[in-house]
Each structure stands twice: as structure tokens, then as C-alpha cells.
Q: What sequence folds into this?
């Protein structure tokens, strides 16, 4: 089991024990052509019979979905920002919040359809104590609802805040990358519904090449802000099965700038737990030493 | 376009990916603006000024496509000496009758040729007689206006005199130049709130991308049309595209984005009062006493429209089959007749006044979706019966118990006598049929699932209704019942008793004497040997195959994709494509090669079906006295026009002038900077106490509002507010305002606002956003309030209807309302119940709305 | 977020999506989970105490500690099962063994511990099968320390910044806190003459806990902020103060006064409970505020790009 906890891993399905499996499948979401129509959100819910997730006008631009969750497996973010602040954003750049009075400055409106990243090293899967979460032959990560007992461990384990418990149900849910459709040789519902090919489905290796070419193309056109997110197999989760082309810093879209799978530190964690357990033993022994009183 | 047509917008994104520049001109910053290269905010209702500015730019910088303009447009035509422009009359054209508020267009005509043919001499005499008779505009033209001209457009009496040097001061080109001279970039800023630099960016991009090697397209939706000057806005776009040579060529054109699926189809096979299938004019009760009189105006004119008798007779044959014979004028007398304006808003007025007693609402929710919802509901409350066929229990079926007027006490449930029949309808996936989209393309869809419960398709419903009515009337000897009893009403049904939609499509396509499906409208005959339900659709069932059902994928054919669906006429994908070749028949450029003359074969060839007489040589000059298609010259690409040219100047056919002029919307905070004439002088007012108009420049109503759609919802909301998955995406009505307006009126993001007009007040949640810009017009700011109009009182998510605010003042050509109005906005929710009436009344009094003339804002001179 | 609110994150400069959290707040319920942490720690260390007492012949201490071990394990199991979204599927935990899942590992600690400590306590109380009872007690003592500390792995092996970044210290906080609770409970219930080891265990545990908790704050920078601020900050301070008071009382009067010893013991127990709530809430706070996710990750990226060529 090489690199099964962290680092580069070229064949997650094989690593999970699948032999003779199909190529790893995933999404490349190109937000530069996303028009925010939310067809992905609706198609996902229709196909997967995901319940509605509340009727709330949030005031967050046109985003009334707010976030990914147990009952939202695709989420389109809407970011309104003054048009000037395009280039290199660093920590010195104040938070945008909501559109304020920015005088005569133009505005830019970024849209991005977020989804489960189907990490190469999926913390949700690793911490699941029941085996409800598993790695499919396509290299994707899926919850089996008939096994999940709702322990909730996957929820804080996810570095992207994707998976969640559906309170009225008690179990954890998230994007399955339409496992049922994949098995029939079909595209996931969201990619099928996307009118502008912002959501592209395919073999992860091929998608990575396509994404790299797209970034180059955009850079050549002067769109310097274009960058890939989650496409690097050397990153903290070993690369995402669902990765993105973004036009701003990840955190602007609600994505962590440098996610790391928690199991990277699993060795250290167990070592320290062991140390502490030994300390208790030592402490116990020491407590019975000395004068008898 | 991305907002309301996300699926169609994929092609815009595809074009962008290939390097196209996307320019978006819109009062609000939408999903389209987000991905466009340039977004230009504009004051709602000022489009003619902006487009006029572009026309002026193209003319003054001599950036027009000269060869195209000279050969293919009427730029060279000399206009009659009697014509006077808005330049001469401060915003009016010659021929205005102030009392009737309409134009007699006779002075707009082309100058009569010096060497007139006998026929032309006859027409000139007729015109002179009409003139001396005192501007005798025919009643039918008042009643049916532009659309009564059918798909051929208005007929000119002669091709007229031309000066191809374009120097004659009375040629169209020079008139156009003078007319648009005042539409300068500075004026555009003054009227539209667009900075000269932004204007220059658009103008340069458009000019740079037009000509021999390149073409540009304009795409519009109801932001252009829903105005009291709507038709003229489209005219301005047409003038611009003709000057740039962008019509009839690949990548060019003016693309109408329809309101929803098959709106194009619903004008081709119309749901309008003044046209019949294929844009045949609806006959008028007095003027059209016989088939001959009906087709007389158009028969024999140059172009394919000259064969109108074949189309008309074939339509009558399809309606009445064997009963239609030459002896009985092919049952022409069975056709209903126009007696006046029977458009939707006049019908509503008639309902309120008690003249209209029954109403069918089919997939339409006027209580929410039409302007001035109160009038709609008052009308429906005064009927004997109302049939509502819809997927959901919409507001138009429940207004009698929970409408806004019940809340205010204006209507009392017990007093409403309307008997309402609600009939569940099958949705588009629950029935087979065709949609006709904006490219005139028919696309067939099969039934995916059975409709639930009692829901039925429209086809099934109307067929059954016809069967039952005919059963009731069976044996009747009353002449009045003959049209129904003689109808050809014999469609094949399947084992469930449902009509096969393809049989109807085949009937529309038409059949010949042998009963076989026809292949082209050129096969239609005036002798009753052919039947055709819609002449322009002839060929959709060619070779007994449902051509609309073809789904050959893009990668198996070229970019014209002629084997996907079927486009009328004749599966032609670009109309007037003769213009894609130079006058001599060769392509304008290799890059934009589309249809061209093959001298060897002696035919027009190319990627599309040529929109021309197939073997008409480019140098062909029609014989004196030729009629119909024979009269088309080799360099006359606009084959449906009687002079074969694209009209920069419309000598006839429009109710409000031969050229577009900017007029302010009926409600405006701005004085028209272009002319002393504030509003469209021929706008159709709608006088009713429930339709008072905010006075122009009123300080009580200082803001502009405009209604629009959101991607997440569908028109009046019946198909979206009722569905959890769509409702959760936009769960409440809101208004969008600029940070400046928020500060000015103390409106809080996420809080409530009340928006008030002289009609009523509604409430909505507030979104403060930089996407709504404060527009600077000279020294003042104009604030615009954006209002999605999808909500009503039924469904999962409920709220006030924005259309209750919209006044009814109509374009004089097509009777569409003006979606722009003025209003006030204040923080907090609106008063409830009768208090709302008192609240709005207070506004009316403060604004000085004249109770005796509620329709006039006092802006007319 | 309440409707209409304009969410803002004050002070620290960083970008976020409307101030919304990036991570999902753990769905673990309170008091179930903090109580479970406490009970597991107390029970695990009590098993050690019980075995020591048995070996050194302190029957009172042994009895109390065995009861504490068994009772804590049983109550902890109830709390744990109650926290599940689908409690009836508790046994699904035992479908697989996954070293990557501390909850899975914990199930294989808790299950035998519960059985062994229960058997040992039953034997102790009834006097039946004394040999097997002792053997069970020995087993429980073996599973006890891991039971007391694995819960630190449970928390640390998440993306929650205040937990994960403290993964080196948390086991000692939990272990120390467990020892303190086990010792404290015995101080409360066992006569002075047999409670010496309990006092020493509590005292030593308290020292370990305080040192470990303090070093989180000292060493973990921004992500340790929740341990000092807000509700968790208050809880941690209360627990710290209570521990200090109990320790002082133990040193001064724990050997002489039954009342002082009992009071100190009870305070230790309470402090241990409060510590668990504090750690729990600190994690919740750090997940809730995107600052704790974004800023450290940004710093990490900045450090990395300093040491190599920047990559987009």
C-alpha cells in the first residue's frame, strides 16, 4: 500500500483493491464558462432524488443554496467583486462580503459550480468506521446509504466541507458522481445538463491535460487570473477527481486554499496517542510507588 | 441571453471560445454580462437612441458596407417630395393626424418613376385620390396594422427611382444621414447614460467585425420589444445591420430570443387575432367580402408573396376539405372576420365592459404574466365562463378567492359570477409535438412519459372539443353551424383515442391532388387541387417523412447542420442568403462564403438552400409587367419585399414613422433630449380608471423600474414556483437596486421595500448590488429598479406580482405594452387590505394624476 | 446565516465566501460527545487504578475504580450510540477494522474494555469467579490507557483546525484529563488511607493536562485562538482554575481531610468534564470561522512559495 494515506497516488481504485478496473473518472469544472444557470443543481437533485434544501433568500447575490451539503450535491457560487481587484490577491486584500458602494468601479460576477472533489486521498472514506464510504472502480468516493450509521465522522474529516448528515434522516450524503449512471456508461446528470460545458466529465488523466491546455489558452488571451485548483496530483489530497479552473483565489469561492488530507498526520497522531497511553500507564505505576498511605 | 436562454447561450460561449467578442447592452448586469467581454449599462427604454447613435457612427465615419448597401438596400431610392422628417417637424413625420394620433403614410412613398407603366400610373392615380380624400387610411390598417401585411411586408406601388451614387438629397441614404445626425455620442450619453468611451468601444468593435470578411449578429429579447416604440427598436437594429452588410450572411442577422418554447411557432401558426397561418392576413369584415378582395392587395406583386392566392386557397382546403370548392370561394365566408382591434388588452377591456363573456387560458397566467394584473383580474371576474388549462393551479384560476383585489375589497368573492373550469394539461414531456424556435426551426419531441391523472395534451383536448361540439350540432340546418359541421375533422387516433400529432403536422405540410405530402410551397396551387395548413411549413413532411424529427448529430454534418430538424421555409437556415454573395453572384469573401452563383450549372449553389429563384442569374432584369417570383431581379435578395431590397427607410407598413426616432417611455423621469415630442405620438393609450399613468418628470415617481426574468423561474411562475427544486433557488420576490439608491432611500440589503406606481404598490425584498448602476445623464442620476416578475399568490413561494405595477400603453404596430415605468420606492412592507388603496391614492393625488384623463401623463404637446 | 445579514469577518484580513465556513461543523452532538470523551477517559484510567489497587491490596479503591471503569464504559457507550444518526446500526462499527479511522479503532477498544471492565466489576461486587475477574481486570487495565487517549485521535484526525493542528498535544490533554478524573472520582469515594495512588494520579494527570493544553496555545498559533476566546476559552479557563484549586487542595489537605479530599476530587472530575466541553467547543468554533482554515493554509502556501518557485 504505497502512498495510501498521503502523497501522489496514480491509481486510487487499484490501491483500494479493484483489479482490472476502468480508468479513473472525474469532473473538470471550467468556471470561466459557467453562466450560473444552476441546471447542474437541479439535474443532480432530479436524478438522485435529493430533497429540497430549504427556501431562504440569503442575500448572497443569486446564491440561495449557500453551500454543499447532504441535500445539495452541486452548488453554484456567485461572487460579486469590484472589477479592478482581479490580479494577485494576497492576505492584504480585504474580504469582499457583499457589494458595497464602490462608486463608479465596474463589477465582476464570478460563478462556479462546486461539487465533491472525489479526492485521491479521501479523508471521509478513511475515517468512516463502518465502510459505508468506499472507493469505486472508477476511483470515485461513494456512500452506501444502507451501511451508514450516521456516526458523522466523515463530516469534520472533509477538508472541503462537502459531506454532511441529513438531520431528518440521520445518515451522511454527498455526490456519488452518479455511480449508477457511470455503471451504465452514462455521464453524470450535472455534466449532462450543463449547457456551456463548464462541467466536463471524463477520464481524469485526459481532463487534466485538457485543463492545462485551457489555462494556457486563457493566459495567452490575457486572462492571467485563470488557475487550476485540485488538478495537481502532488497536492495535499493527492489531487482531486473533480477539479476546477478558477478566476480568483480559491477562498473567494469558499474553497480551502491548501487542503491537506488529515491522514497525512495519521502516523504522528497514533504515535502521540500511544505516547499518551504509555504515559498513563507510567503515571499509574508511579501512583502506586512510594509510601503506602 | 444567459439569464433567460441558458441553453441557447451555449453557442455564444462556443463562439467566445473561438474568439468572438461578446458585447452586452442591458440596464442590469446579468449572467450574460458576467461572461461578456463588455457590459454597457443602459437606461431602460432608450435603445433607439443607442442604436441610432451606432447608425450615425456608421454613416458619419463611412464605415457602412457600400457595395452591399447600394445593391441590396433601398438607400438609393428617391423618396417623394412630400416627405418631411422629424428634423423638420421636431419629432414628428409628415402625415400626422393629431386628432386621431396616427399617420397617413402616403407622403413616405418612393417617388413615382417618370416613365410609369400603365399599372404604376393606375396606382399613382389611386394614391392621389386617397390623398384628396383626406388621409383616407383604411380601417383595416387601423385594426390590424403591420401584421396585416403578412410575411411579405407592406407592398410598395413601384420600385421607384434610384440614385446609386447616393448623392441625391432626397435619396433614402441622405435622408437617413440627416435623420440620425443628432444621435451623437454626446446625445447617447445624455439619453442612455452611456459614456462616450464605452459607446466608442462598442461602435469600433461592431464596425471592425463587419464587412466582407466578418459579420456581426444582434440578439435581442423583450428588452427591445416591450416598449411603446418596440417595433421601431427592431427597425433600428435592422438599419444598422443592413448598413454593415450583416443580413443574409453567415454569422450575421438579428436574432429574436423568444419568450419561451415555440413562441415563433405560435406566430407561424398563430394565436394572434390579426393573422392566419403563414402570416396570411385575417380578413376584414367590410373590406374583404370575397376571396378575391382578400388576396387582391398582394396578389401578383413581385416576389413569392405574390402567390398569396395559392397559399390562401390551400389553407381553406386544409380547413374545410371537400366542402371547399371554387364555387363557394373555397369556404372563404366561413372564416371569422376582423371588426376592429381584438388584441389581448382590448379584449380585457371588453371583458370589464361586459362585451366579452368567455375566455380560454391555455398555458397562460395573465393574472401574473400580463401588464397591469389588476385589469386582467377585473376582466376575468366579469365573465360568464373561463377555461383554464394549465399544469398547476395558477393565479388566473384562483383570483376569485385570494387575488389582491379580494384582499383590498375591490372584488368580493360572492359577487363574482365567472364560472371557472380548471382542466389539467399535459406538459411538454408528456406529449409529442414540435417546437419552432427562433431560427424558424421545427424540432420534434416524442412523448417521454404518460401525463398524470386527467391531464391531457392540447391536441387531444381541442380534437375532443371539436368532436363533441360537432356531435351537438349534428343535423343542424342553421347556416351559422356550417363552418363547424363542414370542418375536415378526421384525424387518426391511436388505441387510447389520442390524435397522432404527426398526422396534424402532415396536414400542415400539405398534400397534393394525389393525397401525397407536398415537398415545397412552390407546389401549392390556387385551384383547390392542393391543401396546406401553413404554406411556409410546406416541406416539413416531404417524402412522407417527419423532417422535424431528424437528429443527425453535429459531428456527422457541416456547420449548417441541415439535417437537424427542419427550418421554414424550405429547410432554409439563413433567410435572404442571396445577400451572402456579391451582386455578381460571387461570394463576398472566401471566409464568409455561403451561397453563390454557379455560372456553369446556371444555378445558385452553396451550403444552405438558396433563398432565391434557383436559376435566376445575377444579371437578370425582370420583364416589364412581370409578377410574383418572375418579377425578382437577379440582384434583389430580399425576395419577400415587393422591391426586393432591404429597407433602411420603410415607405409603408409602420404606424409610427418610416424611420425610428427615440421617444421617452410613456412614464419617464427624463425630458426627451432629442425632440420636443416626448412620447411616441402614435402610441396606443389604454384609457381606464384602473390604468392611470404616472405623469412624466414627476417628483413623486422619480425612479425607473423595469421587470425581467431570472434563470431559475419560468415567466409567470406556474411551472417553477410550484416546484421545490426551482423555488429553493430563488425563493422570494426581490428588487435589485444600486448602493446609491439604497443610501438615498434608506433601503437595507435583505430588508423589505415597497414599490409604488399610480396603479398599485407591491412589496419585495431588497438586494443592494453593484450590478445595478446609477446612470449619469448629464447632471443628474437616474436610478433603475430591477424587478423579477415571476411571483404571485400561489405555489411554494409567494409574493406580489411585479406586473401589477406595469401600465398598459402600447406600441401602435403590434399592441405590445411598455415594460418600463416610473415609481417610488420606500423601505418597509406595503399596507395591507383597503389601506393599500388609500396609500396608492395618496400617491396619485400628490403626483397630480388627472382623474379625468388617467391615461395621459401630460407629456404630449 | 440569518436572512439579510451582511456577513463580515472583522479583524483579520483574508477573503472568504460571504464569511461562510469552508468546513462543515462537526455534527457530533453535545453533551453526548464531550461526555463520552470524559467518560472514556475516566473509565480507562480507572481501570488502571483498579488494577494497581488490586495488586497493592487496596480493596476499597479497587472496588470504586472497578465500578468507575465499568460504569463509565457503559455510560460512554450509551452516549456514543445515542450520538449516532442511526443508533440501530451501532453494530455496523464492527463490520470492518480500519486503522485509518480512530472511531473504528476506538470501537475495538471500547467493546472489549466494556466487556472486561464489566466482568471485573461484576466479579468484584459479587465475589464470583474471582480469578476470571482479576484476569478481566488486567485486560481492562490494558485497554484503559488507549481508551483514555484514542479520543484525541478521533478529534485530531479531522480537518477541524483547532483539533488537527493540536494532534501532538491533544492525546496528553485527554490522557491527563482522564487520569485526573479517575483519580478525582476515587478521592471523592475512597477513604483517605486507600486513596493515596488516586491523589497522586489525579495530581500527575492535572500537571500533564495543563502542560499539554498550555503548549497548544503556545505552539499552535492562530488555530489555538479558539482555546482562548469565546465560549471554549471561558470553559478552558474555568477548567484550568478548577484544576489548579483542586491540585492545591490535594497537596495541602488531600491526605489529611476526607472532606478536602472529597471536594478536591469532585473538583477534578468537574474540571475534566469542563475541559472536554472546552476542547469540543474550540473545535466547533474553529470549523465555523473560515479564518482558521484560510489563514494558516495561506501562510503555508506563502512559506512553500518562498522555498520554491511560485506556481500558479
A:
Amino acid at each position: 500500500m504505497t502512498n495510501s494515506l498521503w502523497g501522489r497516488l496514480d491509481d486510487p481504485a487499484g490501491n483500494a483493491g479493484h483489479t482490472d478496473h476502468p480508468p479513473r473518472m472525474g469532473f473538470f469544472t471550467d468556471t470561466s464558462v459557467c453562466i450560473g444557470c444552476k441546471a447542474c443543481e437541479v439535474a443532480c437533485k432530479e436524478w438522485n432524488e435529493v430533497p429540497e434544501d430549504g427556501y431562504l433568500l440569503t442575500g448572497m447575490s443569486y446564491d440561495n443554496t449557500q453551500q454543499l451539503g447532504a441535500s445539495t450535491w452541486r452548488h453554484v457560487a456567485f461572487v460579486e467583486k469590484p472589477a479592478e481587484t482581479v490580479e494577485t490577491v494576497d492576505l492584504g486584500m480585504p474580504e469582499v462580503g457583499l457589494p458595497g458602494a464602490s462608486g463608479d468601479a465596474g463589477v465582476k460576477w464570478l460563478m462556479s459550480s462546486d461539487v465533491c472533489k472525489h479526492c485521491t486521498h479521501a479523508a471521509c472514506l478513511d475515517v468512516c468506521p463502518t465502510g459505508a464510504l468506499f472507493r469505486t472502480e472508477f476511483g470515485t468516493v461513494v456512500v452506501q446509504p444502507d451501511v451508514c450509521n450516521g456516526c458523522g465522522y466523515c463530516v469534520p474529516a472533509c477538508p472541503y466541507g462537502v459531506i454532511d448528515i441529513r438531520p431528518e434522516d440521520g445518515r451522511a450524503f454527498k455526490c456519488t458522481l452518479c455511480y449508477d449512471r457511470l455503471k451504465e456508461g452514462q455521464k453524470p446528470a450535472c455534466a449532462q445538463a450543463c449547457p456551456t460545458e463548464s462541467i466536463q466529465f471524463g477520464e481524469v488523466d485526459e481532463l487534466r491535460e485538457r485543463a492545462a491546455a485551457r489555462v494556457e489558452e486563457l493566459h495567452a488571451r490575457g486572462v492571467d487570473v485563470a488557475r487550476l485548483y485540485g488538478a495537481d496530483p502532488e497536492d495535499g489530497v493527492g489531487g482531486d477527481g473533480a477539479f476546477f479552473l478558477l478566476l480568483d483565489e480559491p477562498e473567494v469561492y469558499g474553497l480551502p486554499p491548501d487542503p491537506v488530507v488529515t491522514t497525512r498526520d495519521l502516523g504522528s497522531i497514533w504515535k502521540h496517542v500511544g505516547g499518551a497511553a504509555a504515559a498513563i500507564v507510567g503515571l499509574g505505576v508511579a501512583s502506586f510507588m512510594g509510601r503506602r498511605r | 441571453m444567459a439569464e433567460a436562454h441558458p441553453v441557447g447561450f451555449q453557442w455564444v460561449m462556443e463562439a467566445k471560445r473561438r474568439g468572438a467578442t461578446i458585447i452586452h447592452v442591458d440596464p442590469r448586469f446579468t449572467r450574460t454580462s458576467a461572461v461578456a467581454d463588455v457590459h454597457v449599462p443602459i437606461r431602460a427604454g432608450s435603445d433607439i437612441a443607442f442604436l441610432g447613435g451606432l447608425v450615425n457612427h456608421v454613416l458619419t465615419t463611412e464605415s457602412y458596407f457600400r457595395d452591399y448597401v447600394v445593391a441590396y438596400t433601398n438607400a438609393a431610392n428617391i423618396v417623394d417630395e412630400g416627405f418631411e422628417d422629424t428634423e423638420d417637424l421636431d419629432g414628428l413625420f409628415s402625415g400626422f393626424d393629431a386628432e386621431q394620433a396616427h399617420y397617413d403614410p402616403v407622403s413616405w412613398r418612393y417617388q413615382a418613376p417618370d416613365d410609369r407603366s400603365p399599372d404604376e400610373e393606375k396606382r399613382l392615380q389611386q394614391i392621389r385620390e386617397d390623398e384628396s380624400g383626406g388621409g383616407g387610411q383604411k380601417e383595416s390598417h387601423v385594426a390590424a396594422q403591420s401584421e396585416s401585411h403578412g410575411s411579405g411586408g407592406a407592398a410598395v406601388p413601384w420600385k421607384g427611382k434610384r440614385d446609386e451614387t447616393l448623392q441625391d438629397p432626397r435619396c433614402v441614404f441622405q435622408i437617413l444621414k440627416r435623420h440620425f445626425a443628432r444621435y451623437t455620442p454626446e446625445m447617447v450619453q445624455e439619453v442612455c447614460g452611456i459614456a462616450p468611451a464605452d459607446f466608442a468601444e462598442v461602435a469600433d468593435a461592431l464596425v471592425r467585425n463587419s464587412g466582407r470578411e466578418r459579420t456581426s449578429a444582434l440578439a435581442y429579447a423583450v428588452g427591445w420589444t416591450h416598449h411603446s416604440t418596440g417595433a421601431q427598436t427592431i427597425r433600428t437594429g435592422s438599419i444598422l445591420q443592413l448598413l454593415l452588410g450583416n443580413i443574409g450572411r453567415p454569422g450575421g442577422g438579428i436574432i429574436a430570443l423568444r419568450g419561451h418554447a415555440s413562441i415563433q411557432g405560435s406566430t407561424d401558426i398563430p394565436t394572434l387575432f390579426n393573422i392566419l397561418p403563414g402570416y396570411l392576413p385575417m380578413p376584414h369584415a367590410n373590406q374583404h367580402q370575397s376571396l378575391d378582395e382578400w388576396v387582391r392587395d398582394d396578389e401578383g406583386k413581385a416576389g413569392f408573396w405574390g402567390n398569396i392566392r395559392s397559399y390562401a386557397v390551400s389553407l381553406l382546403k386544409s380547413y374545410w376539405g371537400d366542402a371547399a370548392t371554387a364555387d363557394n370561394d373555397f369556404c372563404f365566408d366561413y372564416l371569422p372576420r376582423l371588426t376592429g382591434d381584438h388584441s389581448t388588452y382590448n379584449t380585457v377591456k371588453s371583458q370589464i365592459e361586459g362585451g366579452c363573456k368567455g375566455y380560454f387560458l391555455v398555458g397562460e397566467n395573465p393574472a401574473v404574466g400580463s401588464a397591469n394584473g389588476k385589469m386582467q383580474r377585473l376582466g376575468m371576474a366579469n365573465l360568464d365562463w373561463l377555461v383554464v388549462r394549465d399544469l398547476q393551479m395558477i393565479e388566473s384560476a384562483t383570483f376569485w378567492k385570494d387575488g389582491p383585489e379580494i384582499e383590498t375589497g375591490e372584488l368580493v368573492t360572492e359577487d363574482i359570477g365567472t364560472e371557472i373550469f380548471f382542466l389539467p394539461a399535459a406538459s411538454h414531456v408528456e406529449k409529442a409535438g414540435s417546437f419552432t424556435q427562433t431560427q424558424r426551426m421545427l424540432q420534434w419531441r416524442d412523448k417521454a412519459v404518460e401525463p398524470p391523472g386527467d391531464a391531457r395534451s392540447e391536441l387531444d383536448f381541442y380534437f375532443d372539443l371539436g368532436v363533441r361540439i360537432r356531435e351537438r350540432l349534428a343535423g343542424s340546418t342553421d347556416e351559422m353551424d356550417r363552418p363547424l359541421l363542414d370542418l375536415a375533422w378526421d384525424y387518426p387516433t391511436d388505441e387510447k383515442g389520442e390524435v397522432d400529432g404527426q398526422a396534424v403536422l402532415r396536414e400542415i405540410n400539405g398534400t397534393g391532388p394525389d393525397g401525397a405530402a407536398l415537398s415545397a410551397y412552390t407546389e401549392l396551387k390556387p385551384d383547390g387541387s392542393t391543401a396546406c395548413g401553413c404554406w411556409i411549413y410546406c416541406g416539413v413532411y416531404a417524402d412522407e417523412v417527419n423532417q422535424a424529427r431528424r437528429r443527425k448529430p453535429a459531428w456527422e454534418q457541416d456547420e449548417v447542420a441541415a439535417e437537424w430538424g427542419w427550418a421554414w421555409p424550405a429547410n432554409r437556415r439563413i433567410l435572404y442568403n442571396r445577400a451572402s454573395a456579391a451582386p455578381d453572384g460571387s461570394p463576398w469573401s472566401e471566409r464568409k462564403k455561403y451561397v453563390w452563383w454557379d455560372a456553369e450549372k446556371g444555378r445558385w449553389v452553396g451550403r444552405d438552400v438558396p433563398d432565391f429563384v434557383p436559376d435566376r442569374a445575377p444579371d437578370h432584369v425582370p420583364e416589364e409587367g412581370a409578377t410574383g417570383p418572375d418579377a425578382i431581379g437577379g440582384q434583389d435578395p430580399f425576395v419577400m419585399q415587393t422591391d426586393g431590397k432591404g429597407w433602411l427607410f420603410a415607405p409603408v407598413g409602420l404606424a409610427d414613422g418610416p424611420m425610428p426616432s427615440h421617444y421617452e417611455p410613456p412614464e419617464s423621469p427624463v425630458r426627451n433630449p432629442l425632440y420636443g415630442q416626448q412620447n411616441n405620438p402614435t402610441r396606443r393609450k389604454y384609457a381606464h380608471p384602473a390604468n392611470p399613468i404616472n405623469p412624466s418628470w414627476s417628483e413623486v415617481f422619480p425612479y425607473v423600474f423595469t421587470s425581467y426574468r431570472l434563470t431559475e423561474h419560468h415567466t409567470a411562475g406556474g411551472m417553477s414556483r410550484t416546484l421545490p427544486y426551482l423555488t429553493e433557488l430563488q425563493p422570494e420576490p426581490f428588487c435589485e437596486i444600486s448602493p446609491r439608491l439604497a443610501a438615498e432611500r434608506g433601503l437595507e440589503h435583505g430588508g423589505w421595500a415597497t414599490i409604488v406606481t399610480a396603479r398599485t404598490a407591491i412589496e419585495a425584498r431588497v438586494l443592494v448590488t453593484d450590478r445595478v448602476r446609477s446612470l449619469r445623464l448629464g447632471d443628474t442620476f437616474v436610478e433603475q429598479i430591477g424587478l423579477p416578475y415571476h411571483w404571485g399568490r400561489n405555489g411554494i413561494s409567494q409574493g406580489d406580482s411585479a406586473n401589477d405595477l406595469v401600465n398598459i400603453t402600447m406600441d401602435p404596430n403590434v399592441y405590445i405594452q411598455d415594460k418600463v415605468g416610473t415609481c417610488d420606492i420606500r423601505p418597509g412592507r406595503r399596507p395591507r387590505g383597503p389601506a393599500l388603496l388609500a396609500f396608492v391614492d395618496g400617491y396619485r393625488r400628490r403626483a397630480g394624476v388627472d382623474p379625468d384623463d388617467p391615461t395621459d401623463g401630460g407629456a404630449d404637446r | 446565516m440569518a436572512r439579510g445579514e451582511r456577513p463580515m469577518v472583522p479583524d483579520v484580513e483574508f477573503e472568504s465566501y460571504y464569511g461562510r465556513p469552508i468546513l462543515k461543523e462537526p455534527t457530533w452532538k453535545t453533551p453526548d460527545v464531550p461526555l463520552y470523551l470524559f467518560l472514556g477517559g475516566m473509565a480507562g484510567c480507572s481501570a488502571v487504578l483498579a488494577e494497581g489497587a488490586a495488586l497493592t491490596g487496596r480493596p476499597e479503591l479497587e472496588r470504586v475504580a472497578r465500578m468507575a471503569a465499568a460504569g463509565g464504559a457503559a455510560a460512554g457507550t450509551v452516549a456514543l450510540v445515542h450520538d449516532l444518526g442511526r443508533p440501530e446500526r451501532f453494530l455496523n462499527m464492527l463490520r470492518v477494522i480500519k486503522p485509518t479511522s480512530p472511531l473504528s479503532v476506538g470501537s475495538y477498544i471500547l467493546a472489549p474494555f466494556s466487556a472486561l471492565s464489566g466482568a471485573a466489576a461484576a466479579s468484584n461486587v459479587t465475589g464470583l469467579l474471582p480469578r476470571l475477574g482479576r484476569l478481566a481486570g488486567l485486560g481492562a487495565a490494558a485497554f484503559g490507557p488507549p481508551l483514555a487517549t484514542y479520543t484525541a485521535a478521533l478529534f485530531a484526525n479531522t480537518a477541524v483546525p483547532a483539533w488537527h493542528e493540536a494532534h501532538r498535544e491533544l492525546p496528553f490533554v485527554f490522557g491527563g484529563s482522564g487520569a485526573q478524573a479517575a483519580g478525582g472520582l476515587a478521592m471523592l469515594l475512597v477513604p483517605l488511607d486507600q486513596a493515596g495512588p488516586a491523589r497522586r494520579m489525579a495530581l500527575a494527570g492535572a500537571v500533564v493536562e495543563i502542560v499539554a493544553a498550555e503548549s497548544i496555545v503556545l505552539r499552535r498559533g492562530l488555530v489555538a485562538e479558539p482555546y482562548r476566546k469565546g465560549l471554549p476559552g471561558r470553559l478552558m479557563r474555568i477548567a484550568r482554575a478548577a484544576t489548579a484549586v483542586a491540585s492545591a487542595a490535594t497537596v495541602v489537605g488531600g491526605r489529611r481531610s476526607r472532606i478536602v479530599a472529597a471536594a478536591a476530587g469532585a473538583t477534578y472530575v468537574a474540571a475534566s468534564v469542563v475541559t472536554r466541553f472546552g476542547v469540543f467547543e474550540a473545535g466547533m468554533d474553529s470549523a465555523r470561522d473560515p479564518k482558521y482554515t484560510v489563514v494558516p493554509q495561506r501562510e503555508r502556501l506563502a512559506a512553500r512559495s518562498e522555498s520554491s518557485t511560485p506556481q500558479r
In short: The interface with chain B takes residues 3-6 of chain C (CB under 8 Å). Chain C has ten helices and no strands. Residues 14 and 294 of chain C are 7 Å apart (CA to CA). The domain at 32-301 of chain C is CATH 1.20.1630.10 (Formate dehydrogenase/DMSO reductase fold).
